[in-house]
Amino acid sequence: MTAISQRIIPNLWFDRQAEEAARFYASVFKNSRVSELTRAGKAGFEVTGIPEGAVVTVEFELEGHRFIAINGGPLFKFNPSVSFLVACETRAEVDSSGQGLSPGGAALMELGEYPFSRRYGWAQDRYGLSWQIMFMGDIKTKQKITPTLMFVGGEAGKAEQAINLYVSIFHNAGAGDILRYGKGEAPDREGTIKHAAFTLEGQEFAAMDSAIRTPSASTRPYRSWCSAGTRRKSTTTGPSSPTAGRRACAAGSRTNSASRGRLRPRSWRACWRDPDKARTERVTSAFLKMKKFDVAALLKAYRESR
User: Fold this and answer.
1) What is the pLDDT of residues 19-67, one digit of tens each?
2) How far from the centroid of its chain's Cα atoms is residue 293's Cα?
3) Is residue 28 part of a domain?
4) How buried is 146 (Cβ within 10 angstroms: 0-12 exposed, 13-18 middle, 19+ buried)?
């Protein structure tokens, strides 16, 4: 599969293993690479505790899909409420990917044959990130990797509400096929979502409800960048930085649904990558003090004279 047109980029929160994890994933999947490292400057050390020169973010690609890994500290742990479904063309590919991810991890559903696939497995890797590896057979898919949201425990039954919210916010979005639970599938409530597909900005996502509660069912370690391009629908949700994340946790803040996201206009990327170190230090210092993005404040910091 070729690289997809991707405006929504999953951000994965690690303690300090972002680079190690990115290189591990790139070694498991084909057509994958680590593309860029961002290192800490002097600004913000007293807030983040990340020393100058240490890796802060890692941009990487897996099978044409872009990801960003963040060294955010030991605040959150991954769990199965968010997983990545990998569409495989052969059963051998399922086994190869599953075995590549398994060292140091744990199986949630053992590799084997299931009613919905002749070869499938669901596992947490050594970092706790969840992967569903599935032989697609005759099912045609546009994407190799699909982010999948699972609404569990007290949130079970909210998947459809969340999908409707997301597709109302983003462009080129819509709900797809929905498979619902029927009678006799307790503890899951009849009519709730067993599996649903939806698109945001032309990218495929999936969601499901599950009344069986998973440990620490929070999606805080998972975030997403959306490259907004224009001001229309460019609303920021969720905390914008590791510092803001700490403040939000202390305040017990929540969004309408379990998943969080971050939107950024493309001008922000240019500010972050400017070769003028003094500029990037000013922008970083301003950014770390924010609970949510204030683009005007960032551009002001960027444009200030030395």
Assistant:
1) 999 999 999 999 999 999 988 887 767 667 788 889 999 999 999 999 9
2) 18
3) no
4) buried
